[in-house]
Amino acid sequence: MFSLKFLPCFVLLIFTSVINAQENPEIVVTSGHISNVYCINFSPNNRFVITTGQDKTVRIWDRSLCQEFRVLYGHTGDVWKAVYTSDSKHIVSIDGKGVLITWNHDTGEVVKRNKLGNFIRTFTYVPNSSKVLVMISGKVTEVDIFSGEVTATYSSISDSEIRLTPDGKYLLTMTQEKINSLSLYNFKTGKSDGELVSEHAQASTKISVSPNGKSVASFCIANQIITIWDVESRKILSSFKFPTQNVMEMVFTPNNKDLLVMERTASIAVYGIKTGKFKKRMNGPSTIDYKAMQTGAYKVGTAWDISVSPDNKMVGIAQMLTESPGPGIPPEIFMGGILFDFKQNKELGRLKGYFKMSTHLSVASNAKYLISSTYNKNNGLRVWNMKEGDLEQYIPTSGVAGASADGSVFGAWVISTKEKPVLTVYNAKSLQPVFETMEVDALSDICFNEDGTKMMTQELDIDPKNYLNNKYFFRIWDLTEKKQIGQRIEFSTTEMPIYKSVKMSPDGNFLIAQINSSELTCWDLSKGKRTFSRPSQIGYEHLLDFVPNSNKILISKTAIEYNVEKRKMNADMEWFEWDYSTGEASEKYNTGKEGVLFSGDFSDDGKFLVTGQGGYFNDVHFNVVIWDWETKKPVCEMPGHHGEIKLVWFGAKGRRVDPFAFCPEPYQFNFS
What we know:
Elements: E1 37-42, E2 48-53, E3 57-62, E4 67-73, E5 79-84, E6 90-95, E7 99-104, E8 110-115, E9 124-125, E10 131-136, E11 139-144, E12 150-156, E13 171-174, E14 181-186, E15 191-197, E16 206-209, E17 215-220, E18 225-230, E19 235-241, E20 247-252, E21 258-263, E22 268-272, E23 278-282, H1 290-295, E24 298-308, E25 314-324, E26 332-341, E27 346-351, E28 357-363, E29 369-375, E30 380-385, E31 390-403, E32 409-414, E33 422-427, E34 433-437, E35 443-448, E36 454-461, E37 471-478, E38 483-491, E39 497-504, E40 510-515, E41 519-524, E42 529-535, E43 541-546, E44 552-563, E45 568-579, E46 584-585, E47 589-594, E48 596-602, E49 608-614, E50 624-628, E51 633-638, E52 645-650, E53 656-661, E54 669-670
Antiparallel strand pairs: 1-2, 2-3, 3-4, 5-6, 6-7, 7-8, 9-10, 10-11, 11-12, 13-14, 14-15, 16-17, 17-18, 18-19, 20-21, 21-22, 22-23, 24-25, 25-26, 26-27, 28-29, 29-30, 30-31, 31-32, 32-33, 33-34, 35-36, 36-37, 37-38, 39-40, 40-41, 41-42, 43-44, 44-45, 45-46, 45-47, 48-49, 49-50, 50-51, 52-53, ...
């Protein structure tokens, strides 16, 4: 039996970092990036690799193991760049909102958070210092990464990028006077100390400086020529034609012998600096022939960044890679860093994890079991013993799952040895099936009424010849009598409920859902008809829970508004009650907090509400909050998650809370 012994907060699955010292790194089930990776860099001590990306994280990887070492949470925008300081003790990163963060590598803690400006998303680290250079108001500005203070402001340059020579003396800038030349600009004196002039008359589009500062390379997209200069003599070392315009990045090797030119497809050409001669190609070319993609194996790459390890042994690429081993086989998509042996020209490993999307969380009415549904390579329900922390049962499913509000039953589309999946409902106390049917052919969602006596299945009739003829419908089942109630209720694609945004009323007589036409709608199940609808902002409104002893459902709403005075977006969390029997809505209540309320659950006595919070706006708050329902005031806040909290549950006696984040990572909090 698999067992996880835990801290008082009862962590069942840890997919995010627990702050710990480098000498005693945490044991984690790594998740890896879940979207595009924009940056990859090695630590100066050759031990670690860092990656950043669209998922707003900075991830530290053990270079030798290709395993995730720690995840740094704190950015609210896409993270575009991250580098180590020269002593490998700190990491500096910047996101698309212009927030520069300095991290302690050993602990993962934020040392300093500094807002530079909304349109700043890059910086240049000054080697062997605590300074970075950024462009602020068109001027080269020096900022201390520990204090956040501006320590110096220099003159403006006619360039959008700061390229600093390793000695910190010059900036390599493009000039407006001579578009085919680069200026060795002494930014401290405001004067040019010479020029690097190419043999052609066109402007450069990519520029790279060698680690020792003695060589500079440029690429001209107009004529596809790469030029390499010797900085000291200002003379051209080599100049050669590159076969494509799709140059994404150029980087010198740390031993200053070779230039690596990476195409947009992630293919890398290696050239000698002094001779300009082609040496080899790494990470072979992508498939660009669409006929070949339809008939055979293929590989399609999209690259963002490239880096070479300080010891000259490894090359790291930040890329998205789509691969299929043969015709008719669905492709696998990888987003992350790939490490190559530079000398042997072979792939060493991929910086990835085992990402699992959580689609469901419920707790048995006896509070003994926690049931979680995970969507990944091994889709299924996992039943955890909440007292022992043991994984007691694994049930292979399609990923679709649901449970009654009182925790008496849970259901899933179970994959077994039979010819097709079986819709199965389990008693949550005994874990034994109480209802099974193979009548369901294509299940997209299920939900239950409060006591688990009724179930809704959202289904699809597929026309394999013409998808426009597909029919969408839901059915209601009496689980006590083990039979379908009435006829199936069909709806159009515009009436289709958004995934996991449909709930059955406690008495089982109404369905409330957000639907594709951006509406909130109610079906009267006894009549099989829609009764009331109102506009709904998909993504910023969420169905939380039914208000006890009423015909109302609580709905969260995030009000997005631009604050002109503060020059930022406000994202106020609000909620309102919707009476699904009359179609009337209450006034909105502003919680005084920012973000998105993704989930909510009332205590059995209706006195308290627990909510799960998330969203990426001005500040990051992934908190569980307990509210006094009568006063609408927060009683306590419980931080700890590093992702949007999509599901929460209140214990039967109102003394325990179980939240479940997108990460995913179940926690348990005691509440008195």
